[in-house]
Amino acid sequence: MAKINFQFHATREETSAFILNKVKENNLKVVILQTFPNFEYKVIDYLNISEEMLCKAEMVLLYMNQPIKDEKNYIEFLRNNSGFLCIRLGKQDNKILSESTIGCIAENENLKLWRIIINQYKKTMFKGVYIIGEYNGVKKYYKDHRYTQKVKEMYENGITIIGNGGNNRYILESSMESE
């Protein structure tokens, strides 16, 4: 069993379009999940999913097989439906864009496909950012943090790029992925 966690900045539209493409390309099952204020989920077949549905989601889970339904809470759902690829879309408005994540804890064929999908997304992105701590002002360079061309343009036009918790600001310093 292996764990993968990839943090990046992309617009909700970019990530949704990428997910939709991979879902249709690989005939994946989709679960759109909400954890707050109440746990809710919807299982959607790849033929019925739309970019708009994905774009509005808090979290999207991708499965190679049909997930088990009728779970009553988030922990129970995850426990009974392992092997998924989880995409958490960052918050986005006309002033800020927060970090998104893609990750999994999986094995065998699931892990192989999830690695391929993540690596394909990484190759479309720039890498390299400075992160500035909100409270202490410490600035540190992270050479492997990724972001898209659209995010770079938004940043250059004044959008604030922040971390998942909102406590860190990002300064984009790019080099295009060359792997």
Characterise the protein shown here:
The chain is α+β, with helices and mostly antiparallel strands and 179 residues long. The chain is built from 5 helices and 11 strands; from the N terminus they run βαββαβαβββαββαββ. The strands form 2 sheets. The protein has a 9-stranded mixed beta sheet with strand order 3-2-4-5-7-1-9-8-11. Strands 6-10 form a two-stranded parallel ribbon. The longest helix is centred in the N-terminal third of the chain and has 15 residues, at 12-26.
List low-pLDDT spans.
175-179
First and last CA, distance? 25 Å
Instruction: Categorize the overall geometry.
Output: globular
Helix amount: 25-40%
Main sheet attributes: strand count, strand direction, barrel closure: 9 strands, mixed
**Lateral strand order in the biggest sheet:** 3-2-4-5-7-1-9-8-11
Strand percentage:
35-45%
Give, in order, the helices and strands: EHEEHEHEEEHEEHEE
Structural class: alpha+beta
Tell me the number of helical segments per DSSP (H or I, 4 or more residues long).
Answer: 5
Global mean pLDDT: 89
Our Rg estimate from Cα atoms comes to 17 Å
Number of strands: 11
Please outline the helices and strands.
Layout: E1 2-9, H1 12-26, E2 29-34, E3 40-44, H2 51-55, E4 59-63, H3 74-80, E5 85-88, E6 96-98, E7 100-106, H4 108-122, E8 126-133, E9 139-147, H5 149-156, E10 160-162, E11 168-176
Parallel strand pairs: 1-9, 6-10
Antiparallel strand pairs: 1-7, 2-3, 2-4, 4-5, 5-7, 8-9, 8-11
Question: Which structural traits does this protein have?
Answer:
single chain; alpha+beta; two-stranded parallel ribbon; 37% strand; disordered C terminus
